Amino acid sequence: MRQVVLDTETTGLSWDKGNRVVEIGCVELIERRPTGRTFQRYLNPECQFEPGAQEVTGLTLEFLADKPKFAEIVDEFLEFVDGAELVIHNAAFDIGFLDSELTRLGAQFGRMRDRCTVQDSLELARERFPGQRNSLDALCKRLGVDNSHRHLHGALLDAQLLVDAYLALTSGQREIGFAVTAETDQVINIAILATSGPRPCVQISEVELAAHEARLMQVRKKAGKAVWDQVEVEAEVA
Q1: Do 96 and 61 form a contact (C-beta atoms < 8 A)?
Q2: Which of 171, 170, 163, 149 is nearest to 26 (CA)?
Q3: Class of domain 2-170
Q4: Could you report the per-residue pLDDT of 6-65, keeping only the tens digit for each?
Q5: Burial profile 118-143: b = 16 or more Cβ within 10 angstroms, e = fewer
Q6: Domain ranges across the chain
Q7: Catalytic residue among 149, 151, 153, 212
Q8: Is pLDDT at 183 greater than 60 in this prediction?
Q9: pLDDT at residue 236 above 60?
Q10: What pTM was estimated for this model as a whole?
Q11: Is 89 in the active site?
C-alpha cells in the first residue's frame, strides 16, 4: 500500500476567503515504511497573509516572492500524490485548500479525492483519545514522538512528525502477529497435538530476555499496552 503523509501551510484559515497555500510537504510510505521520497515546495501565494498567520509559519511575502506559483508545480505535485492514500491531520482543512488551488486552474484538474483516498489522523486520534486534545503537538507528546525542534509550523517538518505519530497511533499488535484469537488458538493446539516426540527446550539468555523486555517497553509506550502482558497473567493464573 502506498501512502503519502501530507501537510500544507497557508496565508490564513479559510480558502473561501481568498487565502492561499504557501507550502506543501509530503512524505511517502510504502507498506507503512518511509521510502525516503519527499515532496516540498514553498509557493508564492499572490496575496497577503491574514493577521497572525505569518507568526505561525515564520514565512514572509519577501521570502516567497521568488518562489513558484501553484500553477507551476501542480503537475509535479499531482504526479507525486496520484493513486496514494493521503494521511492528513485535520484533512478537511488541507483538502479544502488544495481543491481551491486546483479549481483556480480549471476543471481539468478535478479534485483531490478524484485522485486519492484520504485518511484523517485527527479523526483516528479522537476515536482513540476521546475528550482529549488531539492537535499534532498533543499527539506527539502523548505518543512519545520528539517534536522539541518544532518551533514554527512547516509543512514538511509537520508531515515528518505526523509520520511518526500516525504509525504510533495505528500500530496495532495484530500487525506483528501478537493478536490471539479463538481461531489462532485452535490452530496452535492442533499443531501441538500433531507433533510427535518431545518438544525441544529452548534456553533464553539474559541478553535475549533484556532485549525482549526492551521491545515490550516500546510497544507499551506506543500502543498503551502489550498483549504479551495479558498472556503472562493468564499463564500465571493457569
Answers
A1: no
A2: 163
A3: alpha beta
A4: 999 999 999 999 999 999 999 999 999 999 999 999 999 999 999 888 888 889 999 999
A5: bbbbbebbeeebeeeebebbebbebb
A6: 2-170, 175-237
A7: 153
A8: no
A9: no
A10: 0.71
A11: no
